[in-house]
Design brief:
By secondary structure, this protein is of the alpha/beta class. Helices cover 37% and strands 9% of the residues. The chain has a five-stranded mixed β-sheet, covered by helices on one side. A two-stranded antiparallel ribbon has the order 1-9. It has a two-stranded antiparallel sheet with strand order 5-6.
């Protein structure tokens, strides 16, 4: 995955709370994509699909050292900062900024399934634990979206876990898939679909909601190299290779309920699924990627 070296990155939609205890005030709202502990019921993580307590108590400080918003803006000025030397060695937080910019630029020009205009939503970077509008969370729950404060929450250490704990190949586009999936939940929130995501089991509303978010991630990927950046008018992402897409599919499979249950429980129990099987997650990402149409993401149909 390559970004336009000359494209100006907009860091205003990525809040960096890794240098201190920042976040929203715990309260109501629904979390999607991660299980929260504290004031809300523990829900299976969007990418883990299991009880986050399985991986130990508390979050681990695996992210890079904390920086201020000013530091992030200074470090991540252009696509070149995200690309690095062209071998995937760009600054990780700058890649996150670039992907968030691209995903939101696409949805900004696309109506939601309900025909409503898209509204911006920031990504909040944290390390270890964070207070959100939905309650307290630790890194154990993985990335998640909180509907109470309309934010995507992400500990960058999760991307190491994606490879080390779940066996994914990883890479920049695997990270992009995760982020695009979480923004898919924001689109569902705007569309009103998010309220339908409940229950457990292979045919539950929870599974259908997660698979739709996978499909929405695929829709973005279909348009990623043609979506114009609002500032330059040129696409921020200039190249997605077959290997990139394969790594996204690999990440989707690695976090399927069946894969994770087999890996950590030694057996598969479909009646407890909340996110879908490896094959389902790959199927719906592929559906969105092939067609590029929001209307084709009808997992509730």
């Amino acid at each position: 995955m390559q970004f336009d070296d000359d494209a100006a990155l907009d860091t205003s939609e990525v809040e960096d709370g890794r240098g201190g205890a920042l976040g929203g005030i715990p309260g109501g709202g629904k979390t999607i994509g991660g299980g929260l502990v504290g004031l809300v019921v523990v829900v299976a993580s969007v990418l883990l699909g299991v009880d986050p307590g399985m991986f130990g108590s508390g979050g681990s400080d695996t992210s890079s050292s904390g920086t201020s918003a000013a530091d992030l803006a200074a470090d991540c000025r252009t696509g070149a900062d995200a690309n690095g030397n062209g071998n995937g060695n760009g600054k990780e937080e700058c890649r996150i900024v670039a992907v968030v910019d691209s995903v939101q630029a696409f949805w900004k020009q696309t109506e939601t399934a309900a025909g409503k205009p898209y509204q911006q939503a920031p990504t909040f970077l944290f390390t270890g634990s964070v207070n959100t509008g939905c309650g307290n969370a630790t890194s154990d729950v993985g990335p998640f979206y909180c509907s109470a404060d309309d934010k995507v929450y992400l500990d960058l250490g999760f991307f190491n876990d994606l490879s080390s704990k779940f066996g994914a190949q990883g890479g920049p586009f695997a990270e992009a898939y995760v982020i695009a999936h979480e923004y898919g939940h924001h689109v569902q929130d705007l569309s009103g679909t998010i309220s339908r995501g409940s229950g457990k089991g292979r045919n539950s509303g929870s599974v259908k909601l997660e698979l739709q978010a996978d499909c929405y991630a695929g829709v973005w990927a279909h348009h990623a190299t043609t979506t114009p950046d609002p500032k330059s008018g040129k696409p921020l992402i200039t190249d997605l290779t077959k290997d990139d897409i394969n790594r996204g599919l690999d990440a989707a499979a690695a976090v399927g309920d069946d894969r994770i249950q087999e890996r950590y429980q030694g057996k598969v129990t479909p009646d407890t699924w909340t996110h879908g099987s490896a094959s389902q997650r790959q199927q719906w990402f592929s559906t969105g990627y092939r067609s590029g149409r929001v209307a084709d993401c009808g997992t509730f149909g």
